[in-house]
Design goal:
Layout (H helix, E strand, L loop, with lengths): L4 E3 L2 E5 L4 E5 L9 E9 L7 E4 L2 E2 L5 E3 L4 E3 L3 E2 L2 E4 L9 E4 L4 E7 L12 H11 L3 H15 L4 E3 L2 E4 L1 E7 L4 E7 L2 E6 L3 E4 L11 E2 L3 H7 L12 H5 L8 H16 L6 H8 L31 E10 L8 E6 L8 E4 L6 H4 L9 H14 L1 H25 L13 H25 L2
Antiparallel strand pairs: 1-2, 3-4, 3-18, 4-20, 5-10, 6-9, 7-8, 10-11, 11-12, 12-15, 13-14, 15-16, 16-17, 17-19, 20-21, 21-22
Length: 438
C-alpha cells in the first residue's frame, strides 16, 4: 500500500499525480507542436469533458471560480476542457486559438493559502482568456500574484496545493511553476515534460518580483548565489518522497527525447500509456519505494489516471482546433477525436459522483477488468487499438469539412461528427465490458 505523503502545508495526506509533456515543431514528424497530459485524481473521481462557448461579458463583471471570484474580462474564448465533476475548473484543455494548458500538483516549501485559486481554476481562466502561450503565462502569473493559490483541490480532504503548468500554442510552449504567490517560468525545450515537483532551477527566464526576497527571508537560499535557483529554494523534498515524481519525469522526458524529430500524436499516446515498459493492464507488483510503482499511466499509489488529452497544435489548421481525449486509464481506453466547435454530445459531457452508465464510468469498469486479468487486458487493448485507428482515419477524412478554425457553436458538421464518435466509443466500451464480465 502506498504511503501517505505530506506537503508544505503540514502533514495532511497528499493525493496527487499528473504528467504533462510537449514536443515543439522541430521535434515532431509534421512540424506541429504536440501536447499531452494524463490527469491523475483520487480513485473513482469522475472526469468528463466540457465545452464552454465563446462569450462577451459586461464591464465590471466578476467570475466565480471554485472558492473565489475574480474580475471577468470582456471576451472569453471557446474552450474544450476536462473537468472533475465537482469542480469549476479544468485539469487540462485547449481553446479555439490553439492554446493548450495542463497543470500539476507541485510540492513546495511555501504553503498555499486556505482560500485562493485552484490550479484547475487557473487552467480554465488561462484557456478562456489567452490567444497565445506567452499571453497565458502573463495571465496566470498576474492571477497568482493577485489572488494566490489555495483552497482544497479534493472534495474529501482539506489539502490546498501549489501548481506547475505546461502551456503550449502552435509556435512555442512554456513551463510555469508557482509556490504561493511566487513563481518562475521558462520556455519549453524541443521536447519537455513536467511532473509533481518544482523543476525550474537557475534556468528561469522570468521570475516573480518577490521570489528571491521571500526565499532569502525564509532561509531557503543565501544572498551570495550568482543566479537564483528556484527549485533549490522552493522545492519541498521532505513532505513527499522524490521517488513519487522523479522516475515519471525522467521516463517521459527520455521517451520524448529518444524520438526527437519523429514525435507525433501516436507516440504521445503511447507515452501516456506507459508502465515502465510493462504490458497493458498496469505495472507488475513493486514496492512504493521503487520508481516503477509510479507509472505515467497511473494505476496505484495515491492517484489513478482519470482522463487524458493529446492535441496537435498546427500553425494553420484546415478546420476547428481539435484534440484526442480518453477517459480513465489510457492503457484500457481509447483516444477519440473532439473539436472546439459544434455541440458536445451528452455522452462525452455526462458525469456522476457514483458509478453509473455514463461513458467515463464504463471506462473505469473496463480499466478494473484489465487490471484483474492480464489476458483480458491484451484483448481489450487490441480491440481499442482497432477502434482508435478507425476513428483516426475517419476523422482525417472528415476534418476539412468541419468549417474553419473559428467555427462556432452552431457547427452542424462538428456536432454530427462528435455524436458519431460518442456512439461508436460507447458501443465498443459496452461490448468489451459485456465480454469481460461474462
Amino acid at each position: 500500500m502506498a504511503r501517505a505523503f505530506g506537503s508544505g502545508a503540514g502533514s495532511r495526506p497528499a493525493i496527487a499525480g499528473c504528467d504533462t509533456l510537449v514536443a515543439l515543431g522541430a521535434a515532431t514528424r509534421r512540424g506541429s507542436v504536440v501536447f499531452g497530459k494524463n490527469s491523475d485524481r483520487p480513485p473513482g473521481e469522475c472526469q468528463p469533458l466540457a465545452l464552454i462557448e465563446r462569450a462577451s461579458h459586461a464591464p465590471g463583471a466578476d467570475v466565480r471560480c471554485q472558492y473565489v471570484a475574480v474580475p471577468q474580462v470582456r471576451e472569453t474564448a471557446r474552450v474544450l476542457g476536462s473537468r472533475p465533476v465537482w469542480l469549476w475548473g479544468f485539469e487540462h484543455g485547449i481553446n479555439e486559438h490553439g492554446v493548450a494548458i495542463g497543470n500539476e500538483t507541485v510540492f513546495a516549501r511555501e504553503a498555499p493559502a486556505p482560500t485562493g485559486l485552484l490550479g484547475m481554476d487557473l487552467v480554465r481562466l488561462g484557456l478562456e482568456r489567452a490567444t497565445t502561450a506567452r499571453a497565458a503565462v502573463e495571465i496566470l502569473t498576474a492571477l497568482i500574484e493577485a489572488h494566490g493559490q489555495g483552497g482544497s483541490g479534493f472534495r474529501d480532504a482539506d489539502w490546498p496545493y501549489n501548481n506547475g503548468f505546461l502551456i503550449a500554442d502552435p509556435g512555442e510552449a512554456w513551463v510555469l511553476e508557482a509556490a504561493g504567490r511566487e513563481w518562475a517560468a521558462r520556455p519549453a525545450r524541443a521536447t519537455d515534460a513536467i511532473s509533481n515537483q518544482i523543476s525550474i532551477g537557475a534556468d528561469w527566464e522570468r521570475l516573480s518580483r518577490g521570489a528571491v526576497e521571500r526565499a532569502t527571508s525564509a532561509g531557503w537560499c543565501g544572498r551570495e548565489e550568482a543566479r537564483f535557483d528556484f527549485e533549490a529554494a522552493y522545492r519541498d523534498r521532505d513532505g513527499v518522497p522524490a521517488v513519487f515524481s522523479e522516475g515519471r519525469l525522467r521516463r517521459s522526458r527520455s521517451l520524448l527525447s529518444a524520438a526527437s524529430g519523429e514525435v507525433d500524436v501516436a507516440l504521445v499516446r503511447a507515452i501516456l500509456r506507459d508502465h515502465h515498459g510493462a504490458p497493458p493492464g498496469g505495472p507488475s507488483d513493486s514496492s512504493p519505494e521503487d520508481e516503477a510503482f509510479y507509472t505515467l499511466c497511473m494505476h496505484q499509489g495515491p492517484s489513478r489516471t482519470a482522463a487524458s488529452i493529446v492535441a496537435e497544435l498546427e500553425p494553420a489548421p484546415r478546420g476547428p482546433r481539435a484534440a484526442w481525449a480518453a477517459f480513465g486509464r489510457p492503457c484500457a481506453s481509447v483516444f477519440f477525436p473532439v473539436v472546439v466547435a459544434g455541440r458536445l454530445p451528452e455522452a462525452l459531457g455526462a458525469g456522476s459522483d457514483e458509478p453509473s452508465e455514463a461513458l467515463w464510468w464504463l471506462f473505469e469498469r473496463l480499466a478494473a477488468a484489465a487490471e484483474a486479468d492480464r489476458g483480458a487486458a491484451q484483448r481489450i487493448r487490441e480491440r481499442l487499438d482497432e477502434l482508435e485507428a478507425e476513428l483516426d482515419r475517419d476523422f482525417a477524412a472528415a476534418y476539412g469539412s468541419l468549417g474553419g478554425p473559428g467555427a462556432d457553436g452552431d457547427g452542424h458538421a462538428a456536432t454530427q461528427l462528435m455524436a458519431d464518435v460518442a456512439a461508436r466509443v460507447t458501443s465498443c466500451a459496452r461490448g468489451l465490458l459485456a465480454e469481460s464480465e461474462r
